[in-house]
Amino acid sequence: xxxxxxxxxxxxxxxxxxxxxxxxxxxxxxxxxxxxxxxxxxxxxxxxxxxxxxxxxxxxxxxxxxxxxxxxxxxxxxxxxxxxxxxxxxxxxxxxxxxxxxxxxxxxxxxxxxxxxxxxxxxxxxxxxxxxxxxxxxxxxxxxxxxxxxxxxxxxxxxxxxxxxxxxxxxxxxx
Length: 175
Hints:
- With 175 residues, this protein is α+β, with helices and mostly antiparallel strands.
- The chain contains 3 helices and 9 strands; from the N terminus they run H-E-E-H-H-E-E-E-E-E-E-E.
- It has helices at residues 4-14, 57-63, 81-93, and strands at residues 40-44, 51-55, 98-104, 107-118, 127-131, 133-134, 149-155, 167-169, 172-174.
- The strands form 2 sheets. Strands 1, 2, 3, 4, 5, 6 and 7 form a 7-stranded antiparallel beta sheet that branches. Strands 8-9 form a two-stranded antiparallel sheet.
- The longest helix has 13 residues, at 81-93.
C-alpha cells in the first residue's frame, strides 16, 4: 500500500478536469497540496532530455543546489536511467500515475516518487508533476548529496480505454 501522501497526489490529479485525457497543468493548484508543495517538482518532458522546471525547497536542499533548468537525468545514477525514462514515458503514454521507488544515500528509508502526467501551455502532454516521498526519515541526514537510484516502477490504475465504435465492412456493422 502506498503512503497517504502518494495517494493524495494521485487523488488530486484524478479529480482534475480531463484526467482521462491528461489534464492541463494550469488546472493543478500545487498550493492545494499544502505542506507537500516543498517536495513537489515539475518536469518538462523530452525523451532522454527532460528538464526540471520547478522543484520545491525540500528537494533542492536534498540535492544541495537549485534545480530549475537542470537535466532530470543528472539526479539519477546511470544504471537507473532506463527505468526512470521508461516511467516518465509510461505515465504520459498510458495516461495514469506511475510510482518509482528507490534509494538515496541521504534518505536511509529510501524514496517513493509518484509521477502524474499533465498538458503544457501548448496543449501537448509534456509536463510531469512528481513528489519526493521519503519512506523513512522526513529530513535528510547530513551527507554530501549524491544521485538517486531507482529500483522499481509501478503504474497505478487502469489506463483509459478507447470507446468501442461500430465500423461498417462491406455494408455490415462490426465492432
